Amino acid sequence: MLVAFVFGLLGGLIAQTSAASCPAGWDQGDFYGGDRYCYKAVDLTGLTKQARQSAVTSNYCKKFDARAYPASIHSRDEDVWVRRYGNQVGIGLYVRQCATWSKENYKWRDHTPLDYTNWWFKQPDNNGGNERHVVARLTDGSGWEDVCAGDGRDYKKLACKIDLEQELDLESM
Ligand SMILES: [Ca+2]
């Protein structure tokens, strides 16, 4: 009886401390020594121009999971992982509208440090003066390109990411 109770208690403790798993339809990625991150590329091509622009400039990922943000990328492995979702996939790198555009002013929407970049040839170039958002491209060697939110035509998908171990409570974007 006592043994059964102890094992029952242990089982409960193990269940509580084991890693959470990703919601259905999200891919669990194993980076930085753990499997705490979930990824999903949501389609933007079916949206109207206005809805696509809004998806690019706000946290559209929240629509799919309250914990999700446009994906931040912190290593070559994670970069390759996100780029397997295809060409013209939006990531969570941006220059806030109130900030002066500069390469140094790019930030991740989930507030994680900018410790890895993979800019495409001659990017970011702020072509036209209002390129504050970033897509990952697979053409011509692959890499990241800064683009204008505009009508969102540079975007086919948006890569979303959940950190299962962190309850993010950032200001709305
Ligand atoms: Ca550009």
TrEMBL record:
Residues 1-19 form the signal peptide. Residues 34-146 form the C-type lectin domain. It comes from the Eukaryota. Gene3D superfamilies: Mannose-Binding Protein A, subunit A. SMART domains: CLECT. InterPro entries: C-type_lectin-like, C-type_lectin-like/link_sf, CTDL_fold. Keywords: Signal. This is C-type lectin domain-containing protein. It comes from Panagrellus redivivus.
